[in-house]
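Exercise 7.
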Amino acid sequence: MNRSDDGDRAKRLEEENEALGRENQLLKTILDKVHESVLAVNERDEFILYNREAEKLEGFNREDILGKKEDEVYPQPFYFSDEVTKMILKTGIPVTEQPYWFRSKDGRKTNMIFSAYPFFDQGKIAAVFVIFRNMNQMGDFIATTLNFHKQFFDQDQKLSLENGYHLEDIISVNQKIQEIIAEARKIAVHNSHVLIVGETGTGKELFAHGIHNAALHSGEPFIPINCAAIPDTLLESLLFGTVKGAFSGATDMPGLFEQAADGTVYLDEINSMSLPLQSKLLRVLQEKTVRRLGSEKQTALNCRIISSSNTDPLEAIENQTFRPDLYFRLATVTINIPPLRERKEDIGILAIHFIQHYNQEFGLLINQISDDLLQQFYQYDWPGNIRELKNFIENGMNFVQAEDKVLNISHLSESFRERLGQSDRLPEAPVHQGTLKSTLLETEKNLIKTSLVQHQGNITKTALSLGISRQYLHQKIRTYHLAGLKG
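Solution. The predicted structure, written as tokens, is:
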């Protein structure tokens, strides 16, 4: 070996030592910036690490601590030197999340939670490191965390209100829903009024907002109002607006029709509106103008009206609670959304979607729903539809532990488990039209699609859950054009 090789090796060793030195300094700097107190002792019970937060907590300077034994630093008897640290050096068993109080040199009492861990080098215990959380500071930390959480929530809410829902946000593998979405895209580009019919919780407002956002005037306001939640007198003022002096306390205020401009007013549960107010709404639609209460001035009506009913409007007409002439004005286009019990193939994909939503909101890591719980969901009738399913998922996610990965029946509260137990019927098969062969193929496609989404595109897990081989699953994915489906 020549001198050149020796020189190269020495240079590499020098560079490696410099890199290790920088990495060591970086780690020490990071430890000095964390909010927890961190200390470590070697196998001889001598301090080898003591960060800045530990200095603040205990009132020592690390220059006076490093290299000394614990019983040289702390007064006796002392919990750590007498018990915890030496015990871990002897047994190698960590001690986690234990309460402890400490009185510093200046007499301050500090309540803490600590965890202590062994550090192994080549199979032998080389050190013990301890992490303390100062409980006296936890109140400030929690307050700061809640404040930031509120800021993030407010930002998310603002974005949600600004952007709203889109037709692309509608989650379904049901053929009927896919057809409705396609129809909604077609009618969105026109300005005709739309009536959406569906049971409570089926997603009527999601479709309404989606149609608005797919329209030419999507940049204009989308203004929803629940006709069932507001008294008639107030609803009339909100819709048409008022002028000062129209009645006691009235002010100059544009109504929702004016505020919407070229946008959309969504009249939710229009079937609950009183007949006299229906008559006034009909006149507005016929004349395409709106007049504020107490005013003689007519203002052109430019907005689109999307309304919804949670009951069959034709039955309401027959029962004389819905004016037929208003119905024909509002129902230029009618969309009928099927209830969840008629599209049960959507339960799995919707459940996973809501799980992912609450994972993000609650900081959890659930990635699957158990087959038992999914089977219970398929057997349930869902009178509250998708909104009720979301409610079930939220209930279960509240009882999930940080280490849990699968949502199962035990996570649901007792009242929710009882609700599932009320239905002992077999799952209703999705309704299909056509031959037996086409129905079977459609059912197979939907089952594969739901399972792929549930397992986030994992071929092995999907094949196992369906009881088929990976090769057969790959073949079916190609046949049904499901490649890349991951939820």
